Each structure stands twice: as C-alpha cells, then as structure tokens.
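User: Teach me something about this protein's shape.
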Amino acid sequence: MSYLELLRLAAPETGIVLTALVVLTVDLTSMRGLGLRMRFLVGGLLTLAGCAAAVAWMLVLPVQAPALAGMFVVNPLTQIVKVCLLGLVMAAVLVSLEAGFTRHPAEFLALLLFSSVGMMVLVSAADLLLIFVALELVSLPLYVLAGFDKESRRAAEAALKYFLFGATAAAFLLFGMSLVYGVTGATGLTAIGGVLGGQGVEPLLMVAVGMLTVGFGFKLAVVPFHLWVPDTYQGAPPASAAFIASGSKLACFFIFAKIMLLAFGAERLTGSADARALGGGWVSLLALLAALSMVLGNLAALVQSSVKRLLGCSAVAHAGYLLLGVLAHDESALAAVVYYATTYGLATIGAFGVVDLVEKQAGNDRRQGWVGFSRRAPLAALAMMIFLFSLAGIPPLAGFFGKFYLFAAALKTGGGSGELLWLVVLAVLMSVVSFYYYLKVLKWIYLAPPVDDSAPVASGQPSRMAQCVLLVIALAVIALGCFPNLLVGPLHAAR
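Assistant: First, the predicted structure itself:
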C-alpha cells in the first residue's frame, strides 16, 4: 500500500491534527490582542469547521480497509463510530465557547482535538500495540485538560488523581498485553482469538486477563477502579469533565467490546475446554463488575450534594449498564453499545454545560446555586430537565431506548437462555433508584425555596447564546429518542 493510500484511509485523523495546528497558529499570530471571548469564539468556530469537514469526508467519500497490516481497520462501522465521536467533540466545543476558566483557549481546543485523534485511532485499532498507543494518546491530553484551570486547587487535585490512577492502570494494561503476546505469540485481536480457540489455556493467560481487566476498568470507570471519577468530575473545568465523560467513554467501550468479541469472546473460544473456561470466566468477572458498578454508583449518587459529583457517581452506574452490551459479545450488541454511549455522552455534555452556567452565577453547583434557576434561565432549565430525564431513561428520550437496546442484547446472550437475566433485572431496579437523585436536582431548579433568608442567591441571566446551544443539544437528545433508527439503523447495516 502506498503512502497516498494510507493518507487517504487516515484522512479524517489527519484533518483533525491539521485543524489543531491551524487553531494554534491563528491564535498565536493574529488574535493575541483580542479579547478572551473573541479568541475562544474564533478558535471554537475553526474547531467546529475542522470536525465538520472530517465528518463530511467520512459520509461522502467512505473508504474501506478491513485489516491494514492487521492493525488498522477502516470499515463502515468504524466510520460511523468516528462520526459519533466527532459529534460529541463538537457538542463539547459548543458548551465551552463562553468558558472563562483559562486564558489559553487555543491550547485547550488543540488538546481536545489531539485527544479526539487518539479516540479515532483507537476505534480503528485491531492490534494490542496500536490500542495501547492510542489509549495513551487519548489519556495524556485529558490529564492536562482536567487541570486546565490553573487558578483552581480542585482542578490541580483532579488532574493529579486522574494522572496517578491512569499511569497505574497503563502499567497494568501494558503488562497484561505483554503476557498475552508471550502466551499466544500474537498481538492482533483476531490472531489471538484464533490461537486461544485452538489450544489449551495456560495459567499465565488468566493473569494476563486479570491485568487487562484492571487496566480497562480504569478507562471504563467501573467499580472498584472508579475512585478517581467523582473527584475528577468535580474538580475539572465543566467543559473538560464533559469531554472526559463522553468521547473517551464511547471510544473505550467500543474497543473493549471489540476485544471481547474478537480475542476473548466466550462464543469464539470453542477449541478446548480450557479456552471455553477462559471465555466463561471473563464473562462472569465482567458481570460482577457491572453489578457492583450499578449498585455502588447509584447508591453513592443518592447522597451527593454537588451536581458534578452526582454526575460522576452516575457515570459509574452508566458504565455498569454499558457492560451489559459488552457481555452480550456479539456484533449486534456493538450497535447498542455505540448508541447508548453516544446518547449518554450528549446528555452528559449538556448537563455539564448547564452546571457551568450555574457555577458562573452562584460560585458552586450545590443546592443553593440552583434555587431560582428556572426563572433566571428558563431555556437552560428546560434543557437540564431533558438531559436528566434522558439519563434516567424516561421515554421517549434517547436514554430510554439506549437502555432498552442494551437490556435486549443482554437477554439474547447464550441464545436467549437467560444467563444474564439477573443482571438485567438488577439494572432495571437501579434505573428506578436513579430517578430519585435526578428528580432531586429538578426539584432544586423548579420547586426549592432558599435554605434561609440570609443565604446568598445567584442572580443575573446566562447569555442567550449559551442557552440556545444547550437547547440544540437537548433537541438532539429528543431526536435520537424519537427516531432511534437515525443511528441504530446505520449501525446495524454496517456490521
């Protein structure tokens, strides 16, 4: 394959890298004398234009390379996932346009784009080495974005915790991958599955699987590897937290599901009794992590007074729901995982955008800051209601259909034998529990009086542009709920 053909396959990623360089260059050469808001607006518009161009390239001029040297796969499914990723990136950029947490908007947007490139490479990766490199390309900019507000001690603490947990998880992940290579002699996902399906499983491979679980457990924010999530979501700037909670989750769950399907899937490992035991053990371990994540995430969210920490604990619970799609370990379940992660990401970005407005007015995201918000910013309050109802799974919003597709995929596991029925029932019960803490926030917005007469109450009104952006994201959540086939149909057709 020539370099020209290679560049054509990687054109979307190349375009995003060039966009980041253009944003940095324009800001450095011609906008240093302008106001911060104008610099953020111009940089944001350039970022949106670059992302839109990459999306248009993938939709209008699709290319396909099923296995480029066994490492990089470009097919209709990966293209659709990349389009969803860039959609989340554009939503995150929109909610950050009026952010005032940094004097370096171009650097913030460039780091966001560089991390997006890592996510796009991760989606197409089909080899353990490329997966690890892509994960690090995703993670390193996110560590910086988490602490981008240099005047906030909470942001510095969030970035440090995120980095320390991430570095430890990367070590486990790399060691586990090296053990897999040592046992199988392969790094390609399909090649690993073929080797494991035709030979006995060595005890060392069990250790490797455990280490991979630890490494990916951090990236996916599942219990017991979730301790960084509430602190990072609370301390990071809302725009950074929104991106961490959305795009990275979609990319990581997609590649994790691919690993389950191609390398360690229980249905694929049929060559020996040991191989089947490995596949079954992997499924049992993930089922336990899913159950713990749903229970502990929802119960921890019940007692939170900070909305950002509440969203962080909720993210742990949603990771448990997404594991249901991974446990289904078939190609049809990938569509459910992508749809749920995309719609969850949209709702979460919107929710963090509303939190940012409240923090600018009240100085915090606790109960008192939300009192009277429905009168100060009725459009943003309406958007927040849509986001929270979607996260709770209220029909006909996108979150309801996301859970429906995931639960249906889990129930079909094992030919409809019902081996995951107990986990689906638990997920439904925990979804009911989540209604309480989402409704608690809406009570603060629409019904709660001030705590006392002396307590300061936020005043003023957010800009109309910020409210309109949030309303547009809310309309996207409604559209994906009322017309789920807009996304699910192409995903099923691309399998």
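Now, about its shape. DSSP finds 22 helices and two strands in the chain. The chain has one domain: 3-493. If you'd like, I can walk through any region in more detail.
User: That's plenty for now, thanks!
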